[in-house]
Every structure is written in structure tokens, then in C-alpha cells.
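Give me C-alpha cells for this 300-residue protein.
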Amino acid sequence: MPQTSEKSRPAAPSKPVVAPYIQEKRYCKPGEWIEGLPPLYIVTPTYPRAEQLPELTRFAQTLMNVPNVVWIVSEDAPQSTQAIVDYLKECGLKTVYLRVQMPAKYQKVKNKPRGVANRLAGLDWIRANAKDGVLYFADDDNTYDIRLFEQMRWTRGVSMFPVGLVTKLGVSTPIVKDGKVVGFYDGWIAKRKFPIDMAGFAVNVQYFLQRPNATMPFKVGYEEDGFVISLGIKPAEIEPLAYNCTKIWVWHTQTKKNNPATPVVQNNATKGTNLDIIKNLIWKGNGNEAETTHKNKGVS
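Here you go.
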């Protein structure tokens, strides 16, 4: 078997060889703020449920890779969920916690306009505290590619992009030709001028602030359309992102609904252990689950 002499043997590299794309990749620290980079104001409506903290945690892990983010979490609850408040303090991101309940008159209707009051509260906070940057409505149960945030950051007016896993069509997207929005592909058009998904558009903050009457209606199915119409923009003025809407960088992923956990029953062997703490972290329900269960079983 041929042997390699010391002279002919290749010298060991002085440092690990790294692929060019890895060398160029820039990682940021959670909550990092870069001077001169337009901020992103991410408005996330949420409500108490078993999946709330896991889904907010998942989304936070995404936002930790995006600099100059202000995460506005707006909870619809009769009282603040302490686990959520604590997590927002611990996650390292720049966060704002709001608690806003749906108006009572809408709580009584069968088809409730969920999340509208929470998004409006986020818009009010932006009006009072922001001067520039971009705002975006990001639900906590979606999945996001960080490239979406980096592109939307440079929105000049209103930008739009595809959203996957929406209706039986599998996507909701503007139709783009020669770099212009000429229509919309969506599973529910319903005479909407802008048949888009809530996760499918972003708005420049200055553009928004110049339109003090911009608002979102408490009308199920027409929240997005009503808000974009109130901005006064024309379809031809929309900025198509995600490479002229040829990429899907946000999806409506759905988490399996979980019932309240069975109460932890401890004995002498488990008292004084980690179960003393863990039992307070599991989802116990908010009182509505029992009522729903009784109705399903025919119990009055």
C-alpha cells in the first residue's frame, strides 16, 4: 500500500473550512437592535388555551433570529395569563403586553370577530409610540420563515405575499404580472376588494400614521379587506414580496386542540419534588371547557 511522505502530505488547514454561505450568514442575539435598520412592529393577538404558551414560544424562537423587533402581544382574557406575562419578560425580545377583551356585544353573537379588538389595541399602541418601521399582524399559530421579516422590513406603503395552507386551495396570494398585483387567488373571494389573509400583508408605519382613520371592522371575514381599504391604497400600488409572490414564507399551521390536564394528585413520595412546581404549569382550563363538555353530552 503506497505511503505518503511528510513532504507530499497536504498541510492541515489553520482553521476550519467554512462554506461561503455560512461565512456570510449573520446571526443576531435575541432582542438585538441595529442602528439605522427599520424596526418591525409585530402585533400578535392571543387568548388563553392549552396551546397558547407553546405557540407563543415557537413564534418567539423565530423572532429571536430577527433584529429590531418590537413584539406586541395582545391577549383577549378577563385577566392576564401569568405564564404569558412571565415568558415575555424572560424571552429576551423587546415586548409589549396588552390585555384587551372583545366588546361584550360581540361576545354574544354566534360568529365572533375574534382578535379584532386585540389588533386594534396594537394599532393604538403603534400610533402612540412608533414613528417609522413596518407593522405586521402575526397570529401565534402560524409558521414563519425569517426571510419574510427581512423583506417586509423595507415596505414603503403596503406589501403583500402568499400565505400557505389556506382553504382548500392551499394558498392565498396576490396574482402578480410584470411586477404588479393584478388580482387575487383565494378560496373565498366574497366580493372583497382585497381577498387576502391576515398574515399576507405588511404596512409601513409612516404610511399608516398618515391615515388616522385607518381601522379594522368587527366583521367576520372582512377584517383584512376593511383594514386595507381604510388605508386608501390601490391594488396597482401594492408591493409584491417573496420574489413577486412566487415563494410561500408563512403558513397557517394548526395545532391539535388539547383538553385540560387531569389534576396532579400527589402523595408523600412526590411532595417536595419538582411536581410541586410542574402542577402549576400545566393547562387546567379557563372554565369554558366544562360548559362545552356538558353541552356536547347533552347535560343542561
